[in-house]
Automatic annotation (TrEMBL):
PANTHER family reported for this sequence: HEAT SHOCK PROTEIN 90 HSP90 CO-CHAPERONE AHA-1, LD43819P
Domain Activator of Hsp90 ATPase AHSA1-like N-terminal: 13-138
One Pfam family of this chain: AHSA1
Name of this protein: Activator of Hsp90 ATPase AHSA1-like N-terminal domain-containing protein
Molecular function, one GO term: ATPase activator activity
Protein family per UniProt: Belongs to the AHA1 family.
GO biological process: one example: protein folding
Length: 331
């Protein structure tokens, strides 16, 4: 048992910055790469600054970190520093930046760094967040055997699930043309084929969240964060043209247009609707001072299903996101 927190209901956090320094020193110092007769080696963790915390509320554990790192490297003929300006909990693997500076440069060193050593460093960075939770999660929670709430107990289990993350390019670029075959449960969705199978109407509603537009956008599409508020392992490919399946495949759809921190346009359906019928949804994020308003505009909602659809969003999206991340009061 890590703390006195009945049913793991209250917010608890733990500062893990020193552990992070020790972790990266152990994992990174000594890494080396050899190519074309040239060997380059990481010799020290020169600096690690920023914040690294593990937090829990209502049984759900998340890691929140934003770090800056400098590593010293050397070869027989040169030495220098690798600077990584951002290592954050929501940084995608392809978004890591590695800036090189040399005290003395050998033209053979740079390609060895880029092609052989940096990929090893990136792998350590990718595994940092899940390891942080695995190592420190139990320190900020009551053991599951002491928890009587089914809700928080289930959250504890889900906190240690590693979500399926689909490798991708930049968030607003189309997917590679070489894709894994999709399950038969969702066919190729074409915008022009989305002919209404019902008499339909439009629906508009909104909600305000106590967070930034950037955080809210990330929460809606990043697989790791989607896993937290859906309390299940999602199948999410957060690119334009990428599919998603949520809540045990009860909800499925396709991202049409993604404007980071601004808007999400998608096709969306409940799985018991007539085959091939999708609602077109545009979610816009308007950030104000200290809060962000999320606006929902839905086209193609089956007449008679308006209340069901809005309730679905209020219960499964709005309320659970607020409860999971503390983004506002739940009425």
């Amino acid at each position: 048992m890590g703390v006195q927190n009945p049913n793991n209901w209250h917010w608890v956090d733990k500062n893990c910055i020193q552990w992070s320094k020790d972790y990266f020193t152990k994992k990174l110092v000594g890494l080396k790469a050899t190519a074309d007769g040239t060997t380059v080696k990481v010799t020290s963790l020169r600096s690690l600054t920023g914040d690294a915390d593990v937090c829990q509320r209502k049984g759900r554990i998340i890691s929140i970190f934003d770090l800056q790192m400098k590593l010293s490297f050397e070869s027989e003929t040169a030495k220098g520093v690798i600077s990584i300006p951002e290592i954050a909990f929501d940084t995608e693997p392809e978004d890591y930046q590695f800036n090189l500076s040399f005290d003395k440069e050998d033209e053979k060193i740079r390609p060895v760094l880029r092609r052989n050593l940096i990929p090893q460093i990136k792998e350590v960075l990718i595994n940092f967040g899940p390891t942080l939770i695995q190592v420190h999660g139990s320190d900020i929670q009551e053991d599951a055997s002491h928890v009587h709430s089914k809700f928080t107990k289930e959250n504890q289990k889900l906190s240690y699930i590693k979500p399926k993350v689909v490798e991708r390019t930049a968030i607003n670029k189309s997917v590679d043309t070489k894709k894994e075959p999709q399950s038969e449960s969702i066919s190729d969705i074409k915008e022009e084929d989305n002919v209404p199978k019902y008499n339909v109407t439009t629906l508009d509603f909104s909600s305000t969240f106590n967070t930034t537009a950037e955080q809210l956008y990330t929460t809606l599409i990043q697989p790791e964060r989607v896993a937290l508020w859906t309390r299940s392992e999602p199948d999410v490919n957060p690119v334009e043209g990428g599919r998603f399946r949520l809540f045990g495949r009860n909800i499925e759809g396709k991202f049409l247009k993604l404007i980071p921190n601004k808007s999400i346009e998608m096709l969306w359906r409940i799985n018991d609707w007539k085959e091939g019928h999708y609602t077109r949804i545009i979610i816009t994020l308007n950030q104000g001072e200290g809060e962000t308003k999320m606006n929902f505009h839905l086209e193609g909602v089956p007449i008679g299903e308006e209340e069901l659809v809005q309730q679905n969003f209020e219960d499964k999206y709005i309320k659970t996101i607020k409860m999971t991340f503390g983004f506002g009061a739940v009425l």
